[in-house]
Amino acid sequence: MANEAIISEGKRIYQQNCIYCHQADAIGKPGFAPSLTNKELLSIASDKFFISTIQDGRTGTGMPPFAHLGQKKIKAIVAYLRTYETLPNR
Questions:
Q1: Cα(27)–Cα(38) distance, integer angstroms
Q2: How much is the pTM?
């Protein structure tokens, strides 16, 4: 698991970039943006999947690419999202 500093950084970056579609608590908007707190999704999706989705976006969906954030910030977002696997909502 990532350290608290990386998770805090990921939360901050999430709040600056992802909150508008996926909501403050990452529960998403039905029919628009998926929940990122879904335990099933988190259990089957690899970090590589999340990184590529954030970096490259998803064709045919509303998910745009965020490659401009760079690998370090994208990995921090993923570390933050991973906290929803086992911890209560932050």
A1: 8
A2: 0.90
Residue 58 identity:
R
Residues 56-83 pLDDT 10s: 999 999 999 999 999 999 999 999 999 9
Task: For residues 3 and 44, give the distance between their C-alpha atoms in angstroms, rounded to a whole number.
Answer: 22
Quick check: 81 and 42 in contact, CB under 8 A? yes
At 33, phi and psi to the nearest 5? -140, 130
Residues 20 and 45: their CA atoms lie apart, in Å, by 22
Nearest to 15, CA basis, from 29, 4, 6, 26: 26
Query: Across-strand partners of 33?
Result: 29
Query: Who's near 46: CB < 8 A, 6+ residues apart?
Result: none
